[in-house]
Protein backbone atom coordinates (compact mmCIF):
# COMPACT_ATOMS: atom_id res chain seq x y z
CA UNK A 1 0.00 0.00 0.00
CA UNK A 2 2.76 2.43 0.93
CA UNK A 3 4.63 1.60 -2.21
CA UNK A 4 1.56 2.48 -4.29
CA UNK A 5 1.25 5.89 -2.55
CA UNK A 6 4.91 6.60 -3.19
CA UNK A 7 4.46 5.82 -6.87
CA UNK A 8 1.46 8.20 -7.10
CA UNK A 9 3.34 11.04 -5.37
CA UNK A 10 6.34 10.51 -7.56
CA UNK A 11 4.14 10.57 -10.65
CA UNK A 12 2.57 13.86 -9.52
CA UNK A 13 5.96 15.40 -8.98
CA UNK A 14 7.07 14.37 -12.43
CA UNK A 15 3.89 15.77 -14.11
CA UNK A 16 4.30 19.20 -12.47
CA UNK A 17 5.89 21.58 -15.06
CA UNK A 18 9.41 22.49 -14.14
CA UNK A 19 8.82 26.18 -15.12
CA UNK A 20 5.83 26.67 -12.85
CA UNK A 21 6.77 29.07 -10.07
CA UNK A 22 3.86 31.34 -8.95
CA UNK A 23 5.90 33.66 -6.74
CA UNK A 24 8.52 34.33 -9.43
CA UNK A 25 5.90 35.00 -12.14
CA UNK A 26 4.21 37.68 -10.04
CA UNK A 27 7.50 39.48 -9.67
CA UNK A 28 8.13 39.44 -13.42
CA UNK A 29 4.62 40.68 -14.20
CA UNK A 30 4.91 43.47 -11.68
CA UNK A 31 8.31 44.48 -13.07
CA UNK A 32 6.80 44.78 -16.56
CA UNK A 33 3.37 46.27 -15.82
CA UNK A 34 4.17 48.77 -13.09
CA UNK A 35 6.55 50.94 -15.19
CA UNK A 36 3.96 51.02 -17.98
CA UNK A 37 1.18 52.03 -15.61
CA UNK A 38 3.32 54.71 -13.99
CA UNK A 39 4.40 56.06 -17.39
CA UNK A 40 0.76 56.25 -18.49
CA UNK A 41 -0.26 58.11 -15.34
CA UNK A 42 2.65 60.55 -15.62
CA UNK A 43 1.83 61.08 -19.30
CA UNK A 44 -1.83 61.88 -18.55
CA UNK A 45 -0.82 64.36 -15.84
CA UNK A 46 1.64 66.01 -18.24
CA UNK A 47 -1.00 66.41 -20.97
CA UNK A 48 -3.37 68.11 -18.53
CA UNK A 49 -0.63 70.37 -17.19
CA UNK A 50 0.50 71.21 -20.72
CA UNK A 51 -3.03 72.30 -21.70
CA UNK A 52 -3.23 74.46 -18.57
CA UNK A 53 0.15 75.99 -19.42
CA UNK A 54 -0.82 76.84 -23.01
CA UNK A 55 -4.14 78.32 -21.94
CA UNK A 56 -2.42 80.56 -19.38
CA UNK A 57 0.20 81.76 -21.86
CA UNK A 58 -2.52 82.46 -24.43
CA UNK A 59 -4.53 84.53 -21.93
CA UNK A 60 -1.45 86.59 -21.11
CA UNK A 61 -0.64 87.01 -24.79
CA UNK A 62 -4.18 88.12 -25.69
CA UNK A 63 -4.22 90.54 -22.76
CA UNK A 64 -0.89 92.01 -23.89
CA UNK A 65 -1.95 92.50 -27.52
CA UNK A 66 -5.24 94.10 -26.45
CA UNK A 67 -3.55 96.50 -24.03
CA UNK A 68 -0.88 97.49 -26.55
CA UNK A 69 -3.57 98.12 -29.16
CA UNK A 70 -5.31 100.50 -26.77
CA UNK A 71 -2.25 102.58 -25.94
CA UNK A 72 -0.66 102.65 -29.40
CA UNK A 73 -1.25 105.00 -32.29
CA UNK A 74 -0.02 105.14 -35.87
CA UNK A 75 3.57 105.74 -34.72
CA UNK A 76 5.70 102.60 -35.17
CA UNK A 77 8.14 103.66 -32.40
CA UNK A 78 5.38 103.64 -29.82
CA UNK A 79 5.89 99.99 -28.90
CA UNK A 80 8.79 97.56 -29.25
CA UNK A 81 9.70 93.97 -28.45
CA UNK A 82 11.18 94.92 -25.09
CA UNK A 83 7.87 96.42 -24.02
CA UNK A 84 6.02 93.37 -25.33
CA UNK A 85 8.24 90.96 -23.41
CA UNK A 86 8.12 92.98 -20.22
CA UNK A 87 4.35 93.29 -20.24
CA UNK A 88 3.55 89.72 -21.31
CA UNK A 89 6.07 88.15 -18.90
CA UNK A 90 4.42 90.05 -16.08
CA UNK A 91 1.00 88.69 -17.01
CA UNK A 92 2.35 85.14 -17.34
CA UNK A 93 3.91 85.31 -13.89
CA UNK A 94 0.52 86.23 -12.39
CA UNK A 95 -1.08 83.18 -14.01
CA UNK A 96 -1.42 80.07 -11.85
CA UNK A 97 0.12 77.73 -14.40
CA UNK A 98 2.96 75.15 -14.31
CA UNK A 99 5.65 77.49 -15.64
CA UNK A 100 8.38 75.08 -14.51
CA UNK A 101 7.69 72.98 -17.62
CA UNK A 102 9.06 75.81 -19.78
CA UNK A 103 12.78 75.51 -20.39
CA UNK A 104 14.25 78.56 -18.69
CA UNK A 105 10.92 79.37 -17.01
CA UNK A 106 9.44 82.73 -18.09
CA UNK A 107 12.85 83.90 -19.30
CA UNK A 108 12.80 81.09 -21.87
CA UNK A 109 9.90 82.64 -23.79
CA UNK A 110 10.99 84.21 -27.10
CA UNK A 111 9.06 87.07 -28.72
CA UNK A 112 11.00 87.23 -31.97
CA UNK A 113 8.68 87.04 -34.95
CA UNK A 114 6.18 89.52 -33.52
CA UNK A 115 5.11 92.29 -35.91
CA UNK A 116 4.23 95.68 -34.48
CA UNK A 117 4.11 97.89 -37.59
CA UNK A 118 1.06 98.94 -39.52
CA UNK A 119 -2.44 98.99 -38.06
CA UNK A 120 -2.22 95.55 -36.50
CA UNK A 121 -0.27 93.99 -33.67
CA UNK A 122 0.79 90.41 -34.29
CA UNK A 123 2.41 88.83 -31.25
CA UNK A 124 4.25 85.54 -31.59
CA UNK A 125 5.86 83.62 -28.74
CA UNK A 126 7.93 80.46 -28.94
CA UNK A 127 9.31 78.31 -26.17
CA UNK A 128 10.28 74.74 -25.35
CA UNK A 129 8.41 72.48 -22.95
CA UNK A 130 10.36 69.81 -21.11
CA UNK A 131 8.94 66.27 -21.17
CA UNK A 132 8.78 64.57 -17.75
CA UNK A 133 9.69 61.30 -19.49
CA UNK A 134 11.89 60.66 -22.50
CA UNK A 135 9.61 59.29 -25.24
CA UNK A 136 11.21 58.00 -28.43
CA UNK A 137 14.26 60.10 -27.65
CA UNK A 138 12.25 63.34 -27.43
CA UNK A 139 13.11 65.57 -24.49
CA UNK A 140 11.77 68.97 -25.58
CA UNK A 141 8.54 70.01 -27.29
CA UNK A 142 8.61 73.28 -29.31
CA UNK A 143 5.51 75.45 -28.83
CA UNK A 144 4.40 78.50 -30.84
CA UNK A 145 1.44 80.72 -29.92
CA UNK A 146 0.11 83.90 -31.53
CA UNK A 147 -2.31 86.72 -30.82
CA UNK A 148 -3.55 89.54 -33.07
CA UNK A 149 -5.21 92.87 -32.31
CA UNK A 150 -5.94 96.02 -34.30
CA UNK A 151 -4.45 99.25 -33.03
CA UNK A 152 -6.82 102.01 -31.98
CA UNK A 153 -5.86 104.30 -34.84
CA UNK A 154 -9.34 105.06 -36.12
CA UNK A 155 -10.55 104.75 -39.68
CA UNK A 156 -7.90 104.17 -42.32
CA UNK A 157 -9.18 104.62 -45.89
CA UNK A 158 -6.27 102.61 -47.28
CA UNK A 159 -6.86 99.65 -45.00
CA UNK A 160 -8.25 96.62 -46.74
CA UNK A 161 -6.95 97.58 -50.14
CA UNK A 162 -5.34 94.49 -51.58
CA UNK A 163 -1.88 95.33 -52.87
CA UNK A 164 -0.79 91.72 -53.31
CA UNK A 165 -0.01 90.57 -56.82
CA UNK A 166 -2.13 87.64 -57.90
CA UNK A 167 -1.24 84.97 -60.43
CA UNK A 168 -3.03 81.95 -61.84
CA UNK A 169 -2.01 78.30 -61.72
CA UNK A 170 -3.55 74.99 -62.72
CA UNK A 171 -3.80 71.86 -60.62
CA UNK A 172 -0.90 70.06 -62.23
CA UNK A 173 0.83 73.00 -63.91
CA UNK A 174 4.50 73.76 -63.40
CA UNK A 175 4.32 77.50 -64.19
CA UNK A 176 2.20 80.42 -63.02
CA UNK A 177 0.37 82.82 -65.30
CA UNK A 178 0.01 86.59 -65.01
CA UNK A 179 -2.98 86.74 -67.33
CA UNK A 180 -6.20 84.86 -66.61
CA UNK A 181 -6.92 84.77 -70.34
CA UNK A 182 -3.60 83.17 -71.26
CA UNK A 183 -4.05 80.65 -74.06
CA UNK A 184 -2.31 78.02 -71.95
CA UNK A 185 -5.13 78.38 -69.44
CA UNK A 186 -7.84 78.44 -72.13
CA UNK A 187 -6.77 75.97 -74.80
CA UNK A 188 -8.48 75.98 -78.17
CA UNK A 189 -9.38 72.36 -78.89
CA UNK A 190 -9.28 71.08 -82.44
CA UNK A 191 -10.50 67.75 -83.76
CA UNK A 192 -8.25 66.02 -86.30
CA UNK A 193 -8.12 62.62 -87.90
CA UNK A 194 -5.99 60.00 -86.19
CA UNK A 195 -4.46 59.28 -89.61
CA UNK A 196 -3.15 62.86 -89.86
CA UNK A 197 -1.79 63.15 -86.30
CA UNK A 198 1.80 62.44 -87.36
CA UNK A 199 1.74 65.43 -89.68
CA UNK A 200 0.36 67.80 -87.03
CA UNK A 201 2.66 70.17 -85.14
CA UNK A 202 1.96 72.39 -82.14
CA UNK A 203 2.90 76.08 -81.88
CA UNK A 204 6.45 75.12 -80.87
CA UNK A 205 6.87 72.85 -83.87
CA UNK A 206 6.78 69.65 -81.80
CA UNK A 207 4.88 66.50 -82.62
CA UNK A 208 1.92 65.30 -80.57
CA UNK A 209 2.31 62.24 -78.36
CA UNK A 210 -0.52 60.03 -77.03
CA UNK A 211 -2.14 61.25 -73.81
CA UNK A 212 -1.39 58.98 -70.87
CA UNK A 213 -4.79 59.67 -69.30
CA UNK A 214 -7.23 58.81 -72.06
CA UNK A 215 -5.34 57.13 -74.90
CA UNK A 216 -5.19 53.36 -75.09
CA UNK A 217 -3.72 51.55 -78.05
CA UNK A 218 -6.34 50.03 -80.29
CA UNK A 219 -9.19 51.84 -78.50
CA UNK A 220 -8.89 55.33 -80.02
CA UNK A 221 -11.48 56.32 -82.61
CA UNK A 222 -10.87 57.93 -85.95
CA UNK A 223 -10.91 61.40 -84.38
CA UNK A 224 -8.54 62.74 -81.75
CA UNK A 225 -8.30 66.16 -80.08
CA UNK A 226 -5.33 68.52 -79.86
CA UNK A 227 -4.57 72.07 -78.72
CA UNK A 228 -2.23 74.62 -80.26
CA UNK A 229 0.07 74.74 -77.23
CA UNK A 230 -0.36 71.15 -76.08
CA UNK A 231 2.10 68.32 -76.51
CA UNK A 232 -0.26 65.33 -76.58
CA UNK A 233 -3.37 64.25 -78.46
CA UNK A 234 -6.46 63.00 -76.68
CA UNK A 235 -8.82 60.17 -77.51
CA UNK A 236 -11.69 61.73 -75.56
CA UNK A 237 -13.02 65.28 -75.52
CA UNK A 238 -13.80 64.81 -71.82
CA UNK A 239 -10.20 64.01 -70.90
CA UNK A 240 -8.97 65.82 -67.81
CA UNK A 241 -5.91 66.89 -69.80
CA UNK A 242 -8.15 69.16 -71.87
CA UNK A 243 -9.77 70.76 -68.84
CA UNK A 244 -8.16 73.45 -66.70
CA UNK A 245 -8.97 73.91 -63.04
CA UNK A 246 -7.54 77.37 -62.40
CA UNK A 247 -6.54 78.66 -58.97
CA UNK A 248 -5.91 82.28 -58.03
CA UNK A 249 -2.95 82.69 -55.68
CA UNK A 250 -0.60 85.40 -54.53
CA UNK A 251 2.85 85.62 -56.03
CA UNK A 252 4.37 84.73 -52.64
CA UNK A 253 2.41 81.45 -52.59
CA UNK A 254 3.94 80.19 -55.85
CA UNK A 255 7.58 80.91 -55.02
CA UNK A 256 9.72 78.28 -56.76
CA UNK A 257 7.50 78.05 -59.86
CA UNK A 258 8.57 79.55 -63.18
CA UNK A 259 6.56 82.23 -64.93
CA UNK A 260 4.68 81.38 -68.10
CA UNK A 261 6.76 82.23 -71.15
CA UNK A 262 3.74 83.39 -73.11
CA UNK A 263 1.91 85.74 -70.73
CA UNK A 264 4.88 86.54 -68.49
CA UNK A 265 6.92 88.17 -71.21
Q: Describe it for me?
A:
There is one protein chain. By secondary structure, the chain is α/β, with parallel strands linked by helices. It folds into two domains: 28-150; 166-259, no CATH class. It is 29% helix and 22% strand. It has three helices and ten strands; from the N terminus they run αααββββββββββ. The chain has helices at residues 2-15, 22-71, 81-94; strands at 120-135, 138-150, 166-170, 175-176, 189-193, 209-210, 223-227, 232-233, 246-250, 258-259. It has a two-stranded antiparallel sheet. Strands 3-9 form a two-stranded antiparallel ribbon. Helix 2 (22-71) crosses helix 3. It is flat. The model has no long low-confidence stretch (mean pLDDT 78).
Topology:
Layout (H helix, E strand, L loop, with lengths): L1 H14 L6 H50 L9 H14 L25 E16 L2 E13 L15 E5 L4 E2 L12 E5 L15 E2 L12 E5 L4 E2 L12 E5 L7 E2 L6
Parallel strand pairs: 4-10, 6-8
Antiparallel strand pairs: 1-2, 3-9, 5-7
| Strands side by side in the biggest sheet | 1-2
Indicate how many domains the architecture comprises: 2
**DSSP strand content:** 15-25%
- Model regions low in confidence, pLDDT < 50 over at least 5 residues: none
General shape? flat
Structural class: alpha/beta
Number of strands: 10
- How far apart lie the N and C ends? 114 Å
Helix-strand pattern: HHHEEEEEEEEEE
What is the CA-based Rg, rounded?
36 Å
Amino acid sequence: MNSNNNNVNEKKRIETPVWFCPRGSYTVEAAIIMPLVMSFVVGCIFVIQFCVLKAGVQRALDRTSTELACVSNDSEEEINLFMVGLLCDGYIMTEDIPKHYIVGDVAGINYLGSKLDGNYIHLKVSYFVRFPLQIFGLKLLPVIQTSDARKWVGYDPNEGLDSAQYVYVTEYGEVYHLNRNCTYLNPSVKAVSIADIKAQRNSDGSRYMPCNHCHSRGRAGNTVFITDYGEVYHASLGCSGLKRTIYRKTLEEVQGMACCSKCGG
